């Protein structure tokens, strides 16, 4: 936990320092700089951290996931035993295990602490996957937790949010001054329109960066699932997903941490949180061939 706090503080200082350098190079008025940086940091990181800290509660509420406290049948006992074994192998605390009602084959993990996370599976997964395939999916989600992906994504989103806020205002000020002929008459209505538009544009690029990292993180989680459950089981699980692939119905706040993602072509692929299943399967097979 201490290392996570240290990482957060170091990230904040690094973001503020870099933003300060950028604003100095762009000759932003120093009297405006400190207030803008504080504003950007608060709003840039605030939403991400609140989402992270409340992620378990919100995920349960959004999906209707029911945490298994006392297993009522063989399936629930198997789920708890499998997650417990994989968590021990990954060196993390036992997560809460839940089941949510959903026709699609999917699962997700979330939580602000790798030793106090939540792993949930859909009823569709339990009905349509073998135990070997489901074991691999659980390993994938445990790998997300062990890798600290939820915290890393929150920090990355905070960094991106901060730069979007700062750059939109810096560039907006420059454009507004150029339009007004550098007249020092304060910020007009046009400035706020320009900033709003720039935040939308820069926000799209920020989303592309966040989704690129999310796709990279899925390959790592697949590899982690392969180590915990077996590479052939992980490949079989992804192949099963490819046969039943559709648009994810998970709420947006946990969609990036599901085993399955959306499908898209062209530019839309830049905004997807998951790489194509064919690429994920090919990566595992390539690693399998290398290991052999």
Task: Characterise this structure.
This protein has 292 residues and is mainly alpha-helical. Helix content is 68%, strand content 5%. The chain contains 11 helices and 4 strands; from the N terminus they run H-H-H-E-H-E-E-E-H-H-H-H-H-H-H. It has helices at 2-25, 30-53, 55-63, 74-90, 123-128, 131-146, 149-179, 189-229, 231-243, 252-255, 277-291; strands at 66-67, 96-100, 107-110, 118-122. Strands 1-2-4-3 form a 4-stranded mixed beta sheet, with helices on both faces. A hairpin with a 7-residue loop joins strand 3 (107-110) and strand 4 (118-122). Helix 1 (2-25) runs parallel beside helix 7, helix 2 (30-53) runs antiparallel to helix 7 and helix 8 crosses helix 9 (231-243). It is elongated and about 75 Å long.
Shape: elongated
| Average pLDDT taken over every residue | 82
Structure classification = mainly alpha
Percentage of helical residues? 55-70%
SSE order, as H and E?
Answer: HHHEHEEEHHHHHHH
- The low-confidence runs, each spanning 5 or more residues with pLDDT under 50, are 1-5
The major beta sheet can be summarized as:
4 strands, mixed
Beta-strand share of residues: 5-15%
**Main sheet: which strands, in order across?**
1-2-4-3
Round the Cα radius of gyration to an integer and report it: 22 Å
Q: Tell me the number of helical segments per DSSP (H or I, 4 or more residues long).
A: 11
The end-to-end distance, rounded to whole angstroms, is: 38 Å
How many runs of DSSP E, i.e. beta strands?
Answer: 4
